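User: Please fill in residues for this 357-position structure.
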């Protein structure tokens, strides 16, 4: 899967659309962990577990716990806690809350700035809160019948997928599966179609990435066949498993891994020169600097000069110009403009944006 992810990332490296479909994910630095008591030792263990979950969401990396220095960070989890509260966990669907069925969780919020600083020092990429909107078409083949999951067709599966999305810090949408979707599926072969076919079937659902999956029983086991479409690139893979749940889980995690890798490239990319045009007021300038500084990859923003209504910034960011361009594309503050190369500056040396009104 790692090799596939690398090929996929390389294939779309130079594709820079004007704007993407993004969702702002809230609560990335928060987590809830089941507890049975409020004693100090269990609270400390719960905070460690909560921080482990937060680091996966923030980095996009399920294996982050094995990276150098992260184990020590998790051991010191209480040092980075801003707030914690004990709560009653919501009852399971279809059950009535009673004293016997009530369970407790510890909700924890961690210090965003402290964690980001430590992750940067460890050369670990940070995934910002503006993340690609993800569309999922999932066919559960049961007794030879095709069941495409919709928002309300199988509530238990909707809950399962929502929980996976929550643990990874993404938003995954399912089709409504009304007459419009049914008509689209009659004219498009979702499991053998091109990117244009899939995009056409998904046109009513703004998305930056589209996952297409089919789960089938084979010889007492289950196999998931998956395709991830993002822009003009796609990857295909299988997820064999002993259960349908495990096949879906593995497929979704692999897709999210591939999406996350593009937006979490680490390493020092040096300074990128950025022209921003149509900057008219001091409020515009403040808005730009606040926005750029809020991007997870950005380490420093410096205004170099002003030429009329154009400002030239130097922006230091993890992953360099490509990572910065990807993060900006997901937002709604700046839109890419063609670079004027007549003055001798290359596309890589300087890139141009316009402030959106």
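Assistant: Residues filled in for all 357 positions:
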């Amino acid at each position: 899967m790692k090799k596939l992810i690398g090929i996929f990332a390389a294939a779309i490296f130079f594709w820079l659309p004007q704007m993407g479909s993004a969702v702002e994910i809230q609560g990335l630095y928060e987590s809830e962990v089941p507890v049975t008591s409020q004693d100090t030792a269990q609270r400390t263990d719960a905070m460690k577990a909560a921080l482990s979950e937060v680091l996966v969401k923030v980095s996009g990396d399920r294996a982050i716990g094995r990276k150098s220095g992260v184990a020590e960070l998790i051991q010191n989890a209480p040092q980075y806690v801003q707030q914690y509260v004990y709560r009653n966990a919501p009852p399971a669907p279809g059950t009535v809350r009673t004293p016997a069925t009530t369970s407790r969780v510890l909700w924890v919020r961690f210090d965003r700035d402290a964690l980001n600083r430590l992750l940067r020092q460890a050369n670990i990429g940070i995934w910002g809160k503006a993340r690609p909107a993800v569309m999922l078409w999932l066919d559960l083949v049961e007794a030879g019948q095709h069941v495409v999951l919709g928002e309300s067709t199988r509530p238990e599966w909707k809950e399962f997928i929502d929980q996976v999305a929550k643990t990874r810090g993404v938003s995954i949408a399912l089709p409504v599966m009304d007459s419009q979707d049914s008509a689209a599926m009659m004219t498009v072969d979702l499991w053998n179609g091109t990117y244009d076919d899939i995009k056409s079937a998904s046109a009513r659902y703004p998305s930056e990435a589209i996952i297409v999956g089919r789960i089938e029983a084979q010889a007492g086991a289950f196999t998931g066949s998956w395709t991830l479409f993002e822009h003009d690139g796609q990857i295909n893979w299988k997820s064999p498993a002993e259960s349908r749940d495990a096949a879906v889980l593995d497929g979704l995690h692999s897709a999210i891994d591939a999406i996350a890798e593009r937006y979490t490239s680490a390493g020092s990319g040096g300074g990128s020169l950025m022209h921003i045009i149509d900057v008219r007021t001091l409020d515009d300038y403040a808005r730009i600097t606040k926005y750029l500084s809020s991007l997870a990859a950005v380490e420093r923003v410096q205004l170099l000069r002003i030429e009329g209504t154009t400002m030239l910034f130097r922006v230091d960011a993890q992953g360099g110009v490509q990572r910065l361009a990807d993060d900006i594309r997901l937002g709604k503050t700046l839109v890419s403009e063609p670079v004027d190369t007549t003055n001798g500056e290359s596309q890589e040396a300087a890139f141009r944006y316009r402030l959106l009104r």
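For context: Residues 1-19 have pLDDT under 50 and may be disordered.
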